[in-house]
Structures are given as C-alpha cells and as structure tokens.
Records
---
Amino acid sequence: MFDFGFGELLVIGIVALIVIGPKDLPGVFRELGRFTGKVRRMAREFSRAMEDAADEAGVKDAAKTFRDATNPSKMGLNKLSEAADKFEKWDPTKPSKKAADAGPETAKLSEERAEAARKIREYSAEKANERIAAEKAAEEAGLAADAGAPEPETKGEA
C-alpha cells in the first residue's frame, strides 16, 4: 500500500526519536504494531465478507462456467478429436466390429460391399490411367504436327 524504502523509514525513526523521546518510543512502536494488526484483521474480514457475498450471488459459479468454457476438455473438443482420429484410422475395406458381431448374413453383405468397392476403385484407376495415356498421346501428336507444319504468316511481314 505505502511504498517506504529503508532510508525513508530511517528518517521517520530519527524524527520520532527526537519528537517523542527515547523513553516513550518503545510504547509508541508497540501501539503502532497493535494498530497495524487491527487494520490487517479488518482488511482480512472485509475480504472474506466480500467473497461470501460473491458466493451467495453466484459469481464463483459464473466464473467457473467461463473457465470451463475456455477449457478444451470441458467443451468436448477431446471427443471431437477422438472422433476425427477414429475417422482417419477407419478402413472401409475391413468389415466393422459391429458387422462381425451382428451375424453371418451381415458379415457376408459387408464382405460383398468391400469387394464391390475394391472393384470400383480398380476400374476407376484403370480408366484414369487410360485417360492420362490418351492425353499424353494427343499431346505428343500435337507436338509432332506442330513441328512439321509451317509457321503461319502474319500481316505486315514482307
């Protein structure tokens, strides 16, 4: 509260020694210490009373709610990241655990779907490779045709 340095306290002590006198100085310091203790006790009681009033008004609950809102684990972001991890690790070619537990017919359907998905991917990859090869062939044919063709004349050249 007050910012007194050692030098300032020394000056105050010397002035008090001169004004009060050496005989009464210990009693004055004792009373000053008691007064300081009472002030501190009153400040502590005031702080406690304010905290109790804040508890009754629900300020601590609101503060806890705000802290929880900024905490990722309380907001459910951990569950979201777990779900994202599960999705990244998911392999559609493998039958799920639920499908294996459901029964043989469901497992059979799951295997059939996985086989159909594999065939679709293979066919798509084959068609993509054919398209890329066709584009390369067309590009090479275009380059060969450009190399053998005369350059077009532009107006203004003589």
---
Amino acid sequence: MPRTRNRLIAAARRSMLQRAELHRRLDVARAALKPGALVDRGKYRIGEKLDDTAYAVQEQFRANKLPIALAAAAGLAWLMREPIKQYAPKLVNRIQDLATDVADHFRTADDAANEDEIDTLEEEENEAVR
C-alpha cells in the first residue's frame, strides 16, 4: 500500500504543478491579449520597422549621393513645371533685355562709329560685286 500511496501523492503533486503552470500560462496569455497590451506591442513593432527603414534609407543616401540628388532635382523640376512654363519666357526676356542694356552701357561711341563704317564697307563691296 505504501507504494500506491506514494504514487498517488506524486501524481497529485505533478497534477498540482501542471495545474499551476497552466494557470500561469493562462494569466500570461490573458495579459498579452488585453487591448492595451496589443496596442503597445503594435507600437513597438511599428517603431522597430520605422527604425529599420530609416537606417536603410540613410545607408542608401550615403552609398548613392549623386543619383539620389539627380532624382530629387528632377522631382522638384517636375513639381515646378507649371510655374516654369508660366514664368520662364518672361524671365528669358528680362535677361535678354538686361544683357542688351549692359552691352549698350559698355559700348563706346567709337564702337558705334566703327559699326557704321563696317556697314558702309559691306554695302560698297556688294555694289562692286554687281
């Protein structure tokens, strides 16, 4: 009898330990499935993914500075295409007017006389050829 009694006592102890372990696991599962815990876990995972993505982007920028700069410039130009179409002709005309004014300012009276002489020489050559 003592053997069977010891077996029963050992079996009762094992079952109590198993039951306690199951209760502990159930409590952990309940705590993990609470809405607050789910939100916290989601925030953590999103934060980790964002950190990984930011690191990967930084590495790409470090490794490919020129292509990324060109792509960024092309993207900005594409975004600004309508304002460029609208204001570019006006800007070109202003630049041309400014260049003409600067050239006129630095042109001396002798240069104007020389141009007149060149025109008359060209006309005389044309008449002589005929």
---
Amino acid sequence: MHVLTHFFINVLIGCIAKLKFIEILLLGLGGIFPDIDHILYIIFGEKIHSIKKAWKFHKREFKLMRPHFFVLHFIEIIIILSVVSYFINWYLFLIFLGFILHWIADAIKYLWFYKSLLPWIKYYSLIGYFLIKI
C-alpha cells in the first residue's frame, strides 16, 4: 500500500475518533514510519542506492508476491511497543497505534489483492518467522 494511503487512513481514523490535531498527526505519522524498513532493506539488503531502481525493485517484488524480512512489520514488536508506550506517553502510544493500523491495512490489502495472507505470515510475525515453514 502506498505510504500516503497509510497516512490518510490513519488521519481519517483519528478524525472519526475526534482526536486533537496533534494526535491525528501523530497517528498519521505512525502509519508512515513502519515503511522505513522497506527503504532500509532495499538500501542495505539489496544494495540499491538509486531511487528509480529502488521503486522498480519494490514494484516488481510486490507483483511477484515476494515478501521480505521487515522488522517494523512484526506484529509482536508492534504490540509490545504499543503496550509499553501506553504506560509511558500518550503521544508515543498514538504513533505505535498508527503502526497497528498500518499492519491491519496491509493485511486487508493482501487479503483483497492476493486472496491470502499465507505468503506474508512468516514475515509479519516473529513467531511465524521462526516456527512456520512455508
């Protein structure tokens, strides 16, 4: 899903929840931050340093249904950070709530587009990554 789509979905949810402007903005940013790991993977994992080549690589991998190891997409990490941040700081919690909404939107997209979550289960869960042999 496009980064701006994640941002606007989270902003819309923040507006529906009647959050304050700064809270809506943090929720929106929380929808963007998880995709930083895509950029890091492309730069360090694939050694691609051209924006044009990186975008082509990303589109090709998506079409091929080829998931990758994206740390900021592991639901266990997102839940732990969300719970811890809830007790530390409301604004930090909103950012990690944005991560959860990002994860849910990705799952819905994969179900809608590919009719299955199977290829992604082991890449969106630490438990799945270490235990599931797909």
